[in-house]
Amino acid sequence: MPARIDIVEGDITSLPVDAIVNAANEALAPGGGVCGAIHRKAGPELAAACASSAAAPPARPRCAGFRLPARHVIHAVGPVWGGGERGEGKLLADCYRNALNLAAETGLKSIAFPAISTGIYGFPADRAAFIAARTVRETLRQRPGIERVVFCCFGRESYELHEAALAATAPQD
């Protein structure tokens, strides 16, 4: 049975999934946006756990969810947009792919993603949504153990961009 991909508009910290992805900074420290919200809700234990693994590569460290409904937090350090000429698209795709691979390798069945890099990192939201949808669809073909992927969007515009991206990347029968 293929994985189900859902889109929701809301707060990623409230989703009852095995793992949520934190759009993290390189230090894995509490920050603003999604990262700050995750750290606030998870509690100070998340920051302490992150401090011990801050030198890990993007989408590699995995921490407990602590006070979150999600059991785990996977940290993905997305690219800062620099005009698209510095491999930002590949780096963003790697964030999604690595997080899904890590989830599958550790037996997790469900995972939720925010719109990585589209906030303060300035990645164009329409491009980011398309890269996310395409990468998730491609990776799920090799990771049948993942049953559910959620794109958790902060705002209606992000929701609609993800909806359009999923439609554009849907398999053609």
TrEMBL record:
Pfam families, A to Z: Macro (PF01661)
Listed InterPro entries: Macro_dom, Macro_dom-like
Domain of life: Bacteria
GO molecular function, one term: O-acetyl-ADP-ribose deacetylase activity
Domain Macro: 1-170
Gene3D superfamilies recorded: Leucine Aminopeptidase, subunit E, domain 1
PROSITE patterns recorded: MACRO
Transmembrane segments: none
Protein name: RNase III inhibitor
Taxonomic source organism: Methyloceanibacter superfactus
